Amino acid sequence: MFRRIFRSPSKTLALILAVFCFGAFMFTLFPQNLPSIADVPSSAVRVEGLVSAEVERRVDGQRIELERVRYADETKEGKLLVWAPLYPLVEYGDSLVFNCRVERPVPFEGFAYDRYLATKGIYAVCFQPQYIDVHPTTSWSVVRVILAIKTFATDTLREGLPEPHASFLSGLLFGGSTALSGDLKDDFRETGTSHILAASGYNVSIFSITFLSFIMSTRLGRRRGLILTTILLVVYVIIAGASAAVVRAGIMGFLVVLEKWISRKAYMLNVLLLTASLMLLFNPFVLYDVGFQLSFIATIAIVTLTKPWSERLDFVPDVIGLRQAFAGSLAATVLTLPIVLWHFGTVSLVSPFANLLVLPLVPYAMATTGIGLVGGILFGPIGQYVSLPAWALSNVMLRLVEVFGSIPFALAQVTHARLLAVAVAVILFLFWFKHRYASSRT
């Protein structure tokens, strides 16, 4: 039944419209006059709340998301983002009480910070909490267990690898770059490779298609390879903390596996559109999430363009899936360019070269890091030797990023970035339309 729906564009469109209509109907059922967390008081107030997500620890503080928030004993709807000092330490599930002047988030430097936070249900922020009182939770929860697994995994990596390689490979696998130095972060930004430090569909999709290409060339065969890749994706989502970004990345990676399973590119785009519609049904604000936009477009590029582009890139060695990784990386980089221009207003003049050299190494770095992680868990200090391939790849990737980032003109500020973004998008559409029209006539 689903195959018939996905084959028919009209049926797929009708299904997507039905999903949106259902979402609009459900939205009308919820009361709209509840006290909102965005109704901030004019002065400091006593705030209570429950830590609802993994606490992100940075060099200068903690990033904490709170739900079930109360302002002076008055319950509010929505989540509050708190930028707190490093101490006292806060964990998921803890209850906090503190004084703070709560503010509404505002855009800055062209970045729609308020809309970005809204994708996570956050409508207010607190930057300087005072007199923080932490009430640790004593209850058991699945999320706490998953986050404990992630912490154990990242600690194991840091025991087996030196810095900055441990932080870089941890960010590559689980997302996050808070432990990296400021200079290294700048190098990633200037070379247009910052996206590999996020738990995104970009990385997971490239890893999935490369791993599949390698496994299906072995004696395991196609069916077992697809099953093994799906199992790895589930394990990855759990170990990486099962946050919203990680789950989304896992979904995008699974879509790559699904495309190989059904072997039907003709209606794979319909599956992608349906997936996006379901995500928007549960969280309409995710449309403003740059991570969602990049993951979605990158996955479309990888699913639809990897095979035809790899056939043209015959100068790249077709060993251990290298050509597939190169073609997928190139396709994702090209198609996400309008989004990067629109949101960030900059263009890295060295990005095409840096990405083409670094991105094909991403799946192999992820795979060897995973192997090193398992080795460290099973064999302790001896597992450090299992991590040597991951360390070697990290050395190469970081060195490439530093070399390209040291070029004086690496990053250029675009004066009319959004206009250029539209122009690039139109050019890409015209290329697609021309190819589509040409193929329909043959």
How would you describe this structure to a colleague?
The longest helix is centred in the C-terminal third of the chain and has 25 residues, at 417-441. This protein is of the alpha+beta class and 442 residues long. It contains 18 helices and ten strands. 58% of the residues lie in helices and 11% in strands. Strands 1, 2, 3, 4, 5, 6, 7 and 8 form an eight-stranded mixed β-sheet that branches. Strands 9-10 form a two-stranded antiparallel ribbon. The chain is globular, with a radius of gyration of 23 Å. The protein folds into three domains: 1-32; 45-135, OB fold (Dihydrolipoamide Acetyltransferase, E2P) (Beta Barrel), CATH 2.40.50; 152-441, no CATH class. Helix 7 runs parallel beside helix 9, helix 7 packs antiparallel against helix 12 and helix 11 (290-312) packs across helix 12 (322-335). The model is unreliable at 27-33 (pLDDT under 50).
Summarize it.
By secondary structure, this protein is α+β, with helices and mostly antiparallel strands.
- Strand proportion, as a percent range, falls in 5-15%
Helix content: 55-70%
Distance between the termini: 30 Å
Number of helices: 18
Shape call: globular
User: Which structural category do the helix and sheet elements fall into?
Assistant: alpha+beta
Poorly predicted regions are 27-33
Helix and strand element order: HHEEEEEEHEEHHHHHHHHHHEHHHHEH
Number of domains: 3
Largest pleated sheet: 8 strands, mixed
Nearest-integer average pLDDT: 76
The tally of strands reads 10
- What is the rounded Rg? 23 Å
